[in-house]
Design a protein that fits this description.
Helix content: 40-55%
Shape: globular
Number of strands: 3
Radius of gyration: 13 Å
Distance between the termini: 35 Å
Strand order of the largest sheet: 1-3-2
C-alpha cells in the first residue's frame, strides 16, 4: 500500500479564501516545515509536485497560487524553466 499524506487545513480560512486555496496553502505550509529554505526564507517547489499532491491540472495550480499571492498569504517567484522550480514563502 502506498504511503498516504495528510495536510492540516485551517478550517477558519475555508469560508474566507475558499477550499482550493486553503488546501494549496496547507500543502505549502507542510513543505515549508521540512524543505530547505534560502537566506530570505524561500523554498523551491516544482509545479509538477503540487499537481501530484493536489490532483489538479497545471492551470488550476497556477490560478489558485495566484489567488494566494493576491490574498498576501504567500510570496512566489517563478522558476526560469522546467529545470528550475518556483520559490515560495509563507507570509502568515
Amino acid at each position: 500500500m502506498a504511503r498516504r499524506s495528510f495536510y492540516k487545513v485551517d478550517a477558519e480560512l475555508l469560508p474566507l479564501i475558499g477550499s482550493d486555496e486553503a488546501v494549496l496553502l496547507a500543502i505549502l505550509e507542510n513543505a515549508a516545515k521540512v524543505w530547505k529554505k534560502d537566506q530570505n526564507g524561500y523554498f523551491a517547489i516544482f509545479t509538477k509536485y503540487l499537481m501530484e499532491r493536489t490532483g489538479w491540472w497545471q492551470k488550476k495550480v497556477i490560478r489558485v497560487r495566484t489567488r494566494l499571492v493576491e490574498l498576501n498569504l504567500i510570496d512566489y517567484t517563478p522558476g526560469k524553466n522546467q529545470n528550475v522550480p518556483g520559490k515560495y514563502k509563507i507570509k502568515r
